[in-house]
Design brief:
Length: 295
């Protein structure tokens, strides 16, 4: 098994880094700090870093085809400009923000924003996975979720991979090509030494799974369930990953420092920072909200 090591890309000290996504138009990585209530942007070529406040916990940020962003913020979806201005709700959907909050999310191959909620106390399966269409319609994809996290789609779009961090498995669903309905849920692999969190898929069909509590990112073969590579990270709470860079062959890794006591923070000075690794493989370009990749 190949073992790699991640380097610090940006010292940002996020309470909970989440939802990284690569903006190819601006060559910038976007990600959120959930409890810091902010969206961050990092430009690798120059080292430039920007951020803007959201004013509420924010679980994920995605790109719009016509410019600007969509946020899964606390209990609703928000549209906004690239600089965070003009944030306004899209549609009338609202979750019960006293019980759950939004966590990770991505745009699916059909231009919809798929994002899930998690129980604030992480003890009950009161969250769900939702799909937001560009017209503002919100559909419930899955219910009974404790901590909604990583999402990925196979290249042929026939399989949807999903992580509910309330368990220790990475799951797969068959996806109907016409209706998009999910069926045949099964565990692809079980993660030990931590909990599976965010996830990305590479161009060889392998899954890169952030392991919260594990100081690492695992590369998983979804056919065999085997771990074929790992990336060591100098932070225990590894939250999510995204391919980026000009060749989409850099793996960006967001981490967290929330919940670490004084001793743990002292031993992990880069907890909450943004890391990067060079895994020797590229990933697909992320889809944009409102731009279906296929009919």
């Amino acid at each position: 098994m190949e073992t790699l090591h991640a380097e610090v890309a940006l010292e940002v000290g996020a309470e909970i880094g989440e939802g990284p996504v690569w903006d190819d138009r601006n060559q910038e990585l976007l990600f959120v700090d959930i409890l810091g209530q902010a969206v961050h942007g990092y430009t690798p070529a120059t080292g430039a870093h920007r951020s803007f406040p959201v004013g509420t916990p924010v679980g994920a940020v995605v790109l719009r085809q016509d410019g600007g962003l969509v946020l899964a913020a606390h209990d609703r979806f928000l549209l906004g400009d690239a600089d965070g201005s003009h944030l306004t709700p899209i549609g009338d959907f609202r979750a019960d923000g006293e019980v759950v909050r939004f966590n990770d999310g991505k745009v699916d191959p059909f231009g919809r924003f798929v994002a899930g909620t998690m129980h604030w106390k992480e003890s009950e399966a009161l969250g769900a996975l939702y799909s937001l269409s560009p017209n503002g319609e919100v559909v419930t994809v899955l219910e009974g979720v404790r901590v909604s996290n990583g999402l990925a789609w196979s290249a042929d779009l026939s399989t949807f991979f999903y992580i509910d961090s309330g368990g220790h498995t990475v799951d797969a669903f068959d996806r109907d090509a016409d209706s998009g309905a999910l069926s045949n849920r099964r565990a692809v692999t079980e993660i030990s030494g931590g909990s599976p969190d965010g996830m990305a898929i590479d161009d060889e069909g392998m899954l890169w799974v952030a392991v919260w509590g594990g100081h690492r990112v695992d590369r998983i073969d979804p056919e065999s369930g085997e771990r074929v590579a790992t990336i060591e990270v100098d932070a225990s709470q590894v939250a999510s990953v995204s391919f980026g860079g000009p060749g989409l062959d850099e793996l960006y890794i967001v981490t967290a420092r929330t919940g670490l006591d004084e001793a743990a923070r002292a031993s992990q000075p880069h907890a909450g920072d943004l890391f990067v690794a060079h895994p020797g493989v590229s990933g697909p370009l992320p889809w944009r909200f409102g731009a279906p990749a296929t009919a």
